[in-house]
Amino acid sequence: MMTVSMSFGLRLALGAFLATACLTDGGSIAAAEAAQKHAPHHAKASPAPAHYTPPPYISMDFATGRVIEARDATRPWYPASVTKLMTVYVALQAVQEGRLSLDTPLVVSARAASMKPSKMGFAPGSLVTLDNALKMLMVKSANDIAITVAEGVSGSVEAFAAEMNATAAKVGMHESHFVNPNGLPDPNHYSSARDMAILGRALLLTFPQHADLFDIGAMKLGDQVIPNHNGLIGRYPGADGMKTGFTCAAGFNLVASAVRGQRKVLVVVMGDASARIRTAHAADLFDRAFSTSQLGQEASDLSTAGSSPPDMRAEICGHRSPKAQLLAETEDFNSPIQVAPGSDPPIPGNGAMIASLPRPVFEPIPVFVGEAPGYQGPIAGPRPANTPIGAIAYTAPEHSAAPTSPIKPDPEALPMHREAHSAHKAKAGKKSGASSPKSADHTKAKIAKPVKKSGPAKAATKTPGKTAVHVSAPNQADQH
């Protein structure tokens, strides 16, 4: 449930008015596609390459699973961070099976800490509950936390990827193959717009009690407030979450859901040229979907396109500096979509206008690092295949921080707008077998104890993401 301030309510009213005024020629979808061919993305951008790859998309009726509108929806595509929807599915499935609980502490391993941004930047040996990890995954899109979840649930990234692929087959995905839990580039890691729509629907149907996990406007870790990257939340009337993604090879991807009246629609866009265009494109697809009652075939019945995923690097990042690539998902949503010198400006449609509305500021939900108060169950971390959680104790590597010193998040990694030219290195500390005393301040990270904790895994006492997100006033955008 959201509470909206008067000023933001007026902005939403404006959005609702715009959303009902669809242009008969396709509005800003055509404008956005024109902008994708020509728009520079920072002051010194060179013209976009002559080659243009139309981005795949699909809009799907949630109740029936039928297609409303689609283009190249079964073409294989690099999913980038929308991969993390599958990571959440596998993790919640493990909770449902009783393998661990939402309160189970997960160990941040050296492998997890080595991931590229976006990341939380916790040092090896830190603990984070599965509940908090899933929130960090959906809001910050943290690549290190995705590895932490994978190792905690399955013991290794490779074992978790096998579970991801088995789950993909179970829910009816066709063009997908996963090799990691975060979507960082790999030629053997791919999906499609149709498959991501099927996955989004399966998540909401299988775990409806966790739907709010995908609609968290912002989270707070200590004094740091981290906004969600989904440009539709709080701006498009009825938008209620899912996940964004970006890499140079993939472009700007989005899986989104929205409700109008008694009807729910899922939209997936892949390979858009910027975060603003992605938001505008998705908003237009929602407008078109909600304006018709005509439905096509079931998404699962679409014919599979037999091709390899395109590498969008030249089109998406050929004109972006490394710094601009890092900042791509945090670009200013309030600035209008620009066009190349000499080209005709696009006619703004509903989507472009929605994308130019100020981002609201959400009341953040709190997250913390460390064990949940009173937890007495096992700790989950990297372990051999087929080894139960807690059977093998994880020992922090030699270079991890001393257990007598609380670990602070890496300042290079937490703010999404910071550059991250070098990987985080934890400060060397004294080797000690004693664990640090439990602090009342759970925003501080904690080293894993090098011994197994006794007691059975207890059932979850809280639901992840079920904290209501209250809206009051502007926010920001995601980096993969």
Plain-language structure description:
- The chain has 480 residues and is an alpha+beta fold.
- The protein is 26% helix and 12% strand.
- It is built from twelve helices and twelve strands.
- A five-stranded antiparallel β-sheet has the order 2-1-9-8-7, sandwiched between helices. A three-stranded mixed β-sheet has the order 6-5-11, covered by helices on one side. The protein has a two-stranded antiparallel sheet with strand order 3-4.
- A hairpin with a 5-residue loop joins strand 1 (57-61) and strand 2.
- Helix 2 packs antiparallel against helix 9 (275-290), helix 3 (84-96) packs across helix 7 (157-171) and helix 6 (143-154) packs across helix 7 (157-171).
- The longest helix is centred in the middle third of the chain and has 16 residues, at 275-290.
Question: Layout of SSEs?
Answer:
Blueprint: H1 6-19, H2 28-38, E1 57-61, E2 67-71, H3 84-96, E3 105-107, H4 110-113, E4 127-129, H5 130-139, H6 143-154, H7 157-171, H8 193-206, E5 218-221, E6 224-227, E7 239-247, E8 251-260, E9 263-272, H9 275-290, H10 313-317, H11 322-327, H12 350-356, E10 362-363, E11 365-367, E12 470-471
Helix pairs in contact: 2-9, 3-5, 3-6, 3-7, 5-6, 6-7, 9-12
Short description:
The protein is of the alpha+beta class. Helices cover 26% and strands 12% of the residues.
